[in-house]
Amino acid sequence: MEGVDHLADERNKAEFDVEEMKIVWAGSRHAFQVSNRISRLVANDPIFEKSKRAVMSRKELFKNTLKKSAHAWKMINELRLSDEESIRFRSFMDQPGFVDLHWGMFVPAIKGQGTEEQQQKWLPLANNMQIIGCYAQTELGHGSHVQGLETTATFDPQTDQFIIHSPTQTSSKWWPGGLGKVSTHAVVYARLITNGKDHGVHGFIVQLRSLDDHSPLPGITVGDIGMKFGNGAYNSMDNGFLKFDHFRIPRDQMLMRLSKVTREGKYVASDVPRQLVYGTMVFVRQSIVSNASNALSRAVCIATRYSAVRRQFASQNGGTETQVIDYKTQQNRLFPLLASAYAFRFVGEWLKWLYTDVTQRLEASDFATLPEAHACTAGLKSMTTSATADGIEECRKLCGGHGYLWCSGLPELFAVYVPACTYEGDNVVLQLQVARFLMKTVSQLGSGKAPAGTTEYMGRAQHLLKCRSSVKKAEDWLNPGMVLEAFEARALRMAVSCANNLSKFENQEQGFSELLADLVEAAIAHCQLIVVSKFIAKIEGEIKGKGVKNQLKNLCYIYALHLLHKHLGDFLSTDSVTPEQASLASHQLRSLYSQLRPNAVALVDAFNYTDHYLGSVLGRYDGNVYPKLFEEALKDPLNDSVVPDGYHEYIRPLIKQHIRSARL
Ligand SMILES: CCCCC/C=C/C(=O)SCCNC(=O)CCNC(=O)[C@H](O)C(C)(C)COP(=O)(O)OP(=O)(O)OC[C@H]1O[C@@H](n2cnc3c(N)ncnc32)[C@H](O)[C@@H]1OP(=O)(O)O
Ligand SMILES: Cc1cc2nc3c(=O)[nH]c(=O)nc-3n(C[C@H](O)[C@H](O)[C@H](O)COP(=O)(O)OP(=O)(O)OC[C@H]3O[C@@H](n4cnc5c(N)ncnc54)[C@H](O)[C@@H]3O)c2cc1C
């Protein structure tokens, strides 16, 4: 029934102040107010309607994205939205497109790697969208191995220009978002060659298309790489290819904040670490962690509301059928995902802080925390995106058959989200960066250099390598110190075990490649410890609102104990817990599920998502699922006519043939 809240009973059960939880989720009262206002602004504008994406052709979808992006830009200007509001606006628009790369990578690359002069020249143009840019790093032959890029930028002292060239087919740029059909400019990563010497990969601002008629400039071959996974979904994005044929750019279009080429062609490296050329990726990886909590919370919101609406099988006393959310199996799959959404939110907040901190330090020429910032952004990007992609698919299954319907919102969410496990660094490749960092830290233990930041616990190796968990009863698993100690012992012991195994190899690189799988496991254990510890830090801080802290505590321990259960092999094999303690953890987890159950719907309401943003019949705020499923079905183009197109050509002849042969 229209106007009736089918989830009202669920909402009445909540034991906490949902409005205060909304503020905790948003990060601050101000952030909540911005999100709340902007999400409704987008939802109420018919231009941003998105339910027909699945039945649009690629060209229609692409044009629809252009239309939405242009309309969004007009509104952002007319309403004079701040940067923060504009970011929220684009995110609630919820349609991947070239603007994501323009604002998300092109502009940050110029800010991070351009000199003051270059910023003054290019940023006003980019900020007014008089030029549109993308980030062209990956090539057909190399994505992960950035040092293996083949595109060359050879300095020509005669003309004071760089000649950008794609010497092989595999050197063609391949994948950059926004490149295929829209971008007028790109930050292109190419091997810098001066006086015949290869100085490795550097960034260059390159104009690709005419600003008059949008045609590619002479020497540029550019286009879209074709359809990607899923209908609709990420196909709104024009991921592109790009080939250069001795294309010339002025010398001052090399991004020269980190190193320079003089008029004479002399390469001048500054004293900052060369890895800063990867700075844009660090920035984006950091933002991907918060995005993971957005995507996972959307899926969890849909699955939770629907699990409360959906009923299967009579209850034991023969009354109404059981809400599927009451099955312990459903809770065991759903509630850890709900907890993960909150966990990723808080670790994302912390990572943002870490990123801001390292940026300020770099500006003051303090590079000490750069390796940790790289390891944290890489590892947490990897861990949270993998868990989120798996979590969205789990939410689809939690919704049974209807989860497979496009209008559940879950197939598209999955299709759009899953490449996050690959872009901005393949998730395995990134964990190996964490592993390198951990191995280095372990090798320095005892050298007098105390590990700091997220590896501070390694400085307590003497204790952590020997200690036995003191958990004796199920409630002990609600003790933050005991939980942290188990996670620290597991992470440290896995890292030390890898380091010991590595030391058995004469050649460290060979040892590393033999032990890759174990190293990735150790890196994941370290990242999980970070997430657990940041969640615990959150619940130990000041939190307002009736019952809010209590709910967050439950979620925190569900997150931690579910991880313990899932990776029990690690915890047992490292002697970080005993089988008895593991069984107490499972007992505690079940109790936490029961405590969470009455609050489940309210906890997803706290995400404050509009029905527009959720884009799901199953996740509707009012829970009015069944009539709306029918409405959606009737909107399908196949239902435009009762007798389908093709009946006379293909169905009728079959049936008639059958009748004729039956008569024989
Ligand atoms: C808005 C969302 C839309 C998203 C659209 C998507 C966009 C993209 O996908 S853009 C392309 C993204 N591409 C990647 O992420 C490529 C992944 N590969 C890499 O980042 C690197 O090549 C690498 C980290 C895997 C390896 O780097 P490399 O220098 O070739 O090799 P080393 O292993 O020898 O590293 C040397 C040294 O530098 C440290 N390091 C590496 N990266 C960074 C960094 N970003 N910041 C700081 N330090 C870094 C590395 O750990 C090594 O340190 P040491 O062991 O101490 O020598
Ligand atoms: C949707 C999407 C958008 C993208 N947008 C952009 C963009 O805007 N700009 C841009 O420049 N790029 C972009 N990319 C490219 C992206 O960054 C790369 O695809 C990514 O970095 C992975 O590199 P790869 O494709 O070379 O994978 P590969 O490295 O070829 O990975 C293949 C397999 O090999 C494994 N592997 C590779 N190296 C190692 C190793 N050393 N040890 C162990 N295993 C290894 C990986 O784990 C993986 O299983 C995008 C990609 C996608 C899918």
Automatic annotation (TrEMBL):
Q: What are its GO biological-process terms?
A: fatty acid beta-oxidation using acyl-CoA oxidase; lipid homeostasis; long-chain fatty acid metabolic process
Q: Single GO molecular-function term? A: fatty acid binding
Enumerate the active-site residues: E424 (proton acceptor)
Give the Acyl-CoA oxidase/dehydrogenase middle domain ranges.
134-235
Residues that hold FAD according to the record: T138, G177
Task: Outline the extent of the Acyl-CoA oxidase C-alpha1 domain.
Answer: 278-439
Write down the superkingdom of origin: Eukaryota
Where are its TM segments located? none
Pfam families xref list: ACOX (PF01756), ACOX_C_alpha1 (PF22924), Acyl-CoA_dh_M (PF02770), Acyl-CoA_ox_N (PF14749)
Q: Which cofactors are required for activity?
A: FAD
Per UniProt, residues of the Acyl-CoA oxidase C-terminal domain are 480-656
Q: Name one GO cellular component term.
A: peroxisome
Q: Which family does it belong to?
A: Belongs to the acyl-CoA oxidase family.
Output this protein's name.
Answer: Acyl-coenzyme A oxidase
The organism of origin for this protein = Microthlaspi erraticum
What's the source species' lineage? Eukaryota, Viridiplantae, Streptophyta, Embryophyta, Tracheophyta
